[in-house]
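Review form for a predicted model. The reviewer records the input and the model, then writes brief findings.
Reviewer: anonymous (R2)
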Amino acid sequence: MLQKLPTVAVAPWSPSNRGASLGPRKFKMTQPVLCFHGLKGLSDDLEDRESLPLPGYKWRLIISYDGTRFSGWQYQQSTPTVQCIVEEALTRITKLERDHLCLVGAGRTDAGVHAWGQVAHFVTPFNYDSLEGIHKALNGLLPLDIRIREISSVPPEFHARFSVKSKIYKYKIYNDTIMDPFHRHYVYHSVYKLNPAAMRDAANHFVGKHDFSAFANASRNDRIPNPVKNIFRFDVNEMGPLLQLEVEGSGFLYRQVRNMVALLIQVGREAVPADIVPKILASHDRKELAKYALSVPPHGLCLFGVSYKEDHLQHPSGRPATSLGRHHSISKCKLPFY
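Model under review:
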């Protein structure tokens, strides 16, 4: 049973009070959610977290960012990360401390890796009448290489990481003699002519449930993650000189996607056969992969999307509608132009 909590006064947001809390003048903290504080350097799977009960409301963000100048998603004190900058904007708007916001991302993208559909959640002790105001304020505070595409209300059961059904990553390769300079920050350039058909054959060997220990780099933590992951599909699509490798799976180990792509590139160069994949998988040894391929650079990789359990996305009653942003409009001039 929930303890009755006091009503707390909150300053209303206005353009002149840009950093104040966006919400009604009064709120009641009535709904329990779980606050999780993350640890750095774990696999892209369930992380070791210390859960604390916190009354409040939970909100989901869909975030797009150019990872070129960031040291990844995960919060770090010494270098700029996406989580750090988003938290700073949320702190200014809500007037809540970082530990109270409990911002958690779906995946820890590495330095230089981009995202179109990163998902995160945060909590507040107050409800909102509308999400359009905080949506506009967030994008107004954030740098142009980070955009909040969507804000929605979610039930207490939703967790940006624990509720995940699958994640989709895309890796782009520019396969031509001369690199297109407009793609240089987002596409890996292969000067070697690649064989897409051979790469598709090799990619099919990754599909299914396997132990991916041979494709995981060592992460900086004491916990040993579950190396068994389920890959639902691994597509190799040709778009002119661009090759787009798209993989969807239940989860991924540290550097797993980039290591799988590195081996596919070697197969595409016809340096190794496609059936080398099951041999390396069966070894469960990262050193076995190192005999054939090195990791590819991060800038070609993008976290494209995350799918969730449907019951964890149910819109709670009494919550504002989802905000997808809004277009500006101008009123018609009543005076004729001469």
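Findings: Residues 243 and 269 are 13 Å apart (CA to CA).
Further findings: The radius of gyration is 23 Å.
Recommendation: see findings above.
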